[in-house]
Fold this sequence. Notes:
Layout: H1 3-12, E1 16-18, E2 30-32, H2 34-51, E3 58-61, E4 66-68, H3 69-75, H4 77-80, E5 85-88, E6 94-96, H5 97-100, H6 114-124, E7 136-137, E8 147-150, E9 156-160, H7 165-179, E10 185-194, E11 209-219, E12 235-239, H8 241-245, E13 252-255, H9 256-261, H10 266-282, E14 290-294, E15 306-314, E16 319-330, H11 332-341, E17 347-348, E18 354-355, E19 358-365, H12 366-377, E20 378-381, E21 384-387, E22 398-402, H13 405-421, E23 426-428, H14 434-443, E24 448-452, H15 454-457, E25 465-470, E26 476-480, H16 484-491
Parallel strand pairs: 3-10, 12-14, 22-23, 22-24
Antiparallel strand pairs: 1-2, 4-9, 5-6, 5-7, 8-9, 10-11, 11-19, 12-13, 14-15, 15-16, 16-19, 17-18, 20-21, 24-25, 25-26
Helix pairs in contact: 2-12, 3-11
The structure holds one RNA strand of 77 nucleotides.
Amino acid sequence: MKIDELYALLRRRGFLWPTAEIYGGAQGLYDYGPLGRALKRRLEEAWSAWFVGRSWDYYRIEPTEIVPEAVVRASGHLENFTDPEVTCATCHGAFRAETVLEKVRPDGIDGLTPPQIEEIVRSSHVRCPNCGASTLSVPEPFHLMFDLPFGVRGGERAYLLPETAQSSYLAFARMREVGRKALPLGIAVVGRAYRNEIAPRQVLFRMRAFTQAELQIFFDPAEPPGAPGASASETIPVLRADRRARGEGSTERLSAAELVASGLPAFYVDHLVHYYQFLRDVLGYPAERLRFLEKSERERAFYNRLQFDAELHLESLAGAKEIGAVHYRGDYDLTRHGAASGRDLSVVRADGQRVVPHVLELTFGIDRNLWALADALLGVEGDRTVWRLPPYLAPIAVGVFPLIAKEHRPFAQHLAEELRSAGIPTEYDEASSIGRRYARMDEVGTPYCVTVDAGTVGDGPERGTVTLRARDSKAQERVPAAEVAARISAALRPPWPPSR
RNA sequence: GCGGGCAUAGUGUAGUCUGGUUAUCACAUAGGCUUGCCAAGCCUAUAACCCGGGUUCAAAUCCCGGUGCCCGCACCA
């Protein structure tokens, strides 16, 4: 579906809508409604079960989203989370200062202040790449972080976290105590991050407040966590950086063993495979729309030693879009926070040697994937609209309907209450025709519908039985009402993560 | 941020150029009747000119500002 159609459907059914909608909305901010919240929660829990549940050494924490300035100074966000821009007074074009000054400053402009950059622009007589005028200037840097006055006097500053990962680095020392174990240690956060984006667009794909799920795995570089054992033969779709550099844009399927043979660390490949299986088997993304795109040294952040972005081809956004990533961040984060805080964040090996742990970061955009689930699995099929969500992700697991409201209402309402008491997300509906009720459930991804009819309440052989309709096949089956709860519960169990 | 385009019920729209009755139609939604297993039919109801200012006897319509959305550029450590 196109972006507008998909967004309209999600708004209409109460999945999400713009924040402050009655005031015309606020760019880059969205609220989730009942169904959206339910889907988001299930997505978060599925992620947590798959990634955090993989090891007894992995823990999920719930940190705050406001941090003192020292944190973002140490992390490098304060100085690096802005990109100096050059604007042209003649044509109003805006360009990255680094690009404009490429010839004059081949080494780049890292660390220079805006006045210094402006001085270079002026003294070197650089012309506007767009209109050729020499009217370029450097505006005040645009800050991508939200800052807040903090404390009673407001003299200190605090910031809304621009990424949840920092919380895990801050928690590392405490969690070493809490976990009482040797490395590896995994710290997971599902939480909000905030960025004052210049141009939020494409609904859930560029937001100013968004939810990330991130697992940071801290490990001794001498003993990296995991290697593709049983999954060595699993193939994953990848686009390597060297092939892209040669202009080859096609994805290839390589086995874990091949990726290791090509020089990627085994533990890294292991996590790529594990990540891929989550996207394909748990979320149900079509394999042919997935790929892992390797970022070149130029493209990735300087502290990342390896970076593969998980991408899904989205019809609504007309292209492959990043839905997650696997970053090998080395010891950058703990070294920075160690130095800035004065705390020694290194760990002692069995032989007495100290080492600063390395970090493997598995990051997953919750909002983006919520949208991606709609894009990839929700569509118009002939005369109906169906969202083929995996049952354990569906906001509503079962719809209960009386075929004729007047006659079958008591039985149907009672059954709906029972299912709800059993912990099954249930919807009861008796409005309009039975076909329309099925259709309403199909478009929000409800995997099962139960209908109470004359047979259920009659005296014949069908007494006490109901029809159980499957969303995907539209097939109906006659089952005893007493068995419905067990049948549906079984289908709501998510796939278990492969343990290490 | 820059440039271009757009903004009318929940959705899609007519009307805007050329200002003038109670703002068109369809679907959706709610209630009723009927039917009784896949968006059927009939009746009824709810429901909109993005916000603010200006011009005018009169503004959905013209002008200005703002906001939001779409496309392109830029940005997305």
